[in-house]
TrEMBL record:
The protein's name in its UniProt record: Glycoside hydrolase family 15 protein
All residue ranges annotated as the GH15-like domain in the record: 217-581
Any GO BP: carbohydrate metabolic process
Keywords (A to Z) from UniProt: Hydrolase
Pfam families for the chain: Glyco_hydro_15, TREH_N
All copies of domain Trehalase-like N-terminal, residue ranges: 7-146
PANTHER family assigned: GLUCAN 1,4-ALPHA-GLUCOSIDASE, TREHALASE
Domain of life, source organism: Bacteria
Molecular function GO terms recorded: hydrolase activity, hydrolyzing O-glycosyl compounds
Amino acid sequence: MDNLNYAIIGNCKSAALISDKGSIDWCCLPDFNSPSVFAKILDENRGGSFEILVDDSYQVQQSYERTTNIVSTVFKSGNDCFEVFDFMPRYLNGSGYFNPAEIIRYFKYISGNPAFRLKYDPRVEYARFHSRLEDEDEYIKCYTTEGDYDSMYLYTDFNKQDILQQNTIYLKQDCFALMSYDQKLLSQTLDRQYLKLQKTKVYWLEWANKLTSYAKYNHEIIRSALVLKLLSYDKTGAVLAAATTSLPETIGEERNWDYRFCWIRDASMVIKVMSSLGHLNTVKRFMRFIIDIIPDKDEKIQIMYGINREKVLTEETLDHLTGYMGSSPVRVGNAAYLQKQNDIYGILVDVIYQQFTDFKISLEDSESLWTIVRSIVRIVENNWQKPDKGIWEIRTDEKHFTFSKVLCWVAIDRAIKIAGFIHKDKYVKEWEPLADTIRNEILEKAWNVEMGAFTQFYGSDDLDAATLLMESYGFIDARDPRYVQTVKATEKELCVDGLMYRYRNRDDFGLPSSSFTICTFWLINALNAIGEKKRAKAMFEQLLSYSNHVGLFSEDIDFKTKRLLGNFPQAYSHLALIETAINLAKGELTEDEQILEAIQ
């Protein structure tokens, strides 16, 4: 595995990663956070996969069907050629969405006499125990023989024994393979799969067509928006940080975490971006998720929750799996749910503020959100002066992190704005002194005269990429000399060959050694804000070139090799890509706008 050359498919219930050779190497069913069915990405020998094996004469090319989440993989050797469409069905069916826990592989015959073998090797329940395969006439059943019972079903019009024995298959016409967590009630035919393929294609085309269009980088914006949509969970409105667990930030180290959860910070930022793109259903579902997980006025807000609103996310290691390229441990669950991170309050109130000002929301939801806002103000009032773990989830010391303090100010500032918007003037007068107090303390204690910059935490000499967000959250003007100096000092200290560290000081696991993708986007935005627009654009286009073969980004990038690292695809990275692209495209007219302007 030289790089994360995977495409993702999904249907807002679960997802799967398809390698550039057409192998399904990661999938959890029935939901995103269920135990894996295929986990070759975490253990090449034991994890399990569904592979299409061809001889060395075949060339393999992979791409997305235009503006969809359907993956096309073409296998060609001379005149022998076939194409595989991988997708998880999603489309409107009656009053709701049809998005079952299944993957469909549609094999399209193109020409010649193409030949391949199928290696169907599911290992359910994280491959803890052996999975048995049996031909049961209607389907091939996979099930566990020890440990927790689990099963899944493969429906196909290929000869089942050819699959089980990995015999050579000569494709002469279109065929299919459907993997389902549940037994199907209806007969599974090729025509039925073709209909699902076309309906799913139409769904994604229509979804993408509703996105706001931009003059530049529109293709990259659409692909990133499709990724963010895939990482949203229909059932509850949660938004996942990523579809995977334990893909390492650095090969051979132990910074391996489970990201199949909803971080309030990440999800709120995703929702803010999706709002700007015009997709309000995703926004509404997430706001409902927030209302549902914060039922009590005095309940502590966690930094993260399970996608089904779980509040306990116990972390454990799967020692039987060797990890991505030997990077162990493999973790499921995430102990970070116990951490205190004061920045989440500002990010959440910022999103709620947008709901009040930009969208029509019901009176009931408005009242619920207003209650949440007042609860958050009380929490911030009682906690903003205390140290925390910070945005980067430092597992040891708590400190007075600058970004956390800034976001505490954001929480009060947006709460004041919301109060003014709904004519609750009493709260405006009550909260304004608190906002001023927090802001004044930050300006005094976070500024380091010798460094000429706002630093990572009070009294620190270390710089942190998160301080670049001070301007975008409205804390400081882009023309303020202190911000300009912070941007330049942070770039000088943390930027290497166009890629950014989060920070360079030692943490729980030593010195960081890979670039955190979102931080490079933050620097580009900051450079653009202070007027260095040409350099920002050049850096942005360089960063885009580091995506994988289908335009996807993970959490991290290796400074030297530029390989993708960390969990994948990363919502944080793609939301920052969209935000940066929109900022760089401001002021430029789309082709349609140019035509309308010419007519007028």
